[in-house]
Amino acid sequence: MTDEHHGTEPPSEAALRIKAMEQVLIEKGLLEAGAVDTIVDIFEHQLGPKNGARVVARAWSDEAYHQRLMTDATAAILELGYSGFDGEYMVVCENTAEVHNVTVCTLCSCYPWPTLGLPPMWYKTAAYRSRVVIEPREVLKEFGLTIADDVEVRVWDSNNELRYLVLPMRPAGTDGWSEEQLAKLVTRDSMIGTGLPLTPEQLAAQEASA
User: Fold this and answer.
1) Residue 13 pLDDT
2) 1 domain residue, yes or no
């Protein structure tokens, strides 16, 4: 299950209207083809998740902050300037060697916008929202993430008041890394629970190919 997986639901009326408006603007020469997708990609994968990555990196490198984050996530995240609509009340779920957390919103698509940006398309599909609660291990396998049988998988269901953020485990081989370096390892999916942070080797390969 990836960003290209749209489930079985047809596009909403609002989505169809937006697509029609986009097409009109393209035809009039006021908008380049693919511009909207590029903007969405920036907010979905780059700008938004960088906020959450900073929260995670601070928790990895500052034990006092880590404790505040686990005690009162809303206040700790606000310390870094992130709050507002869809992020007023936050709870952080910490991954450990014994527990792996994953988040969902089974009612609609509640998502922590201030820390993660725009929700990915797959997060809003009926397929993800229903299946991750019933068969989380199978769904995670579709993301390329296999959880060992002796690790408990906990699924956290957001609602109209609470938003969840997963605190992934710090990758090995990062002793002495700065907060800025650590933030580069944090992926959007690792903060949802459908992925893991990059390893130092994966980051090096990614930067080498950029």
Assistant:
1) 57
2) no
Domain annotation covers residue 7: no
Give pLDDT, residue 48. 66
Whether 165 is in a domain gets the answer yes
Tell me how many domains the chain contains.
1
Per-residue pLDDT band for 161 (boundaries 50, 70, 90) equals: confident
pTM: 0.79
CATH number of the structural domain spanning residue 121: 3.90.330.10
Looking up tokens 């779920």 gives: 93
Domain encompassing residue 171: 13-209
Indicate if the pLDDT at residue 132 is higher than 90: yes
Residues recognised as catalytic: 105, 108-110
- Is residue 183 in some structural domain? yes
Model confidence at 46: pLDDT above 50: no
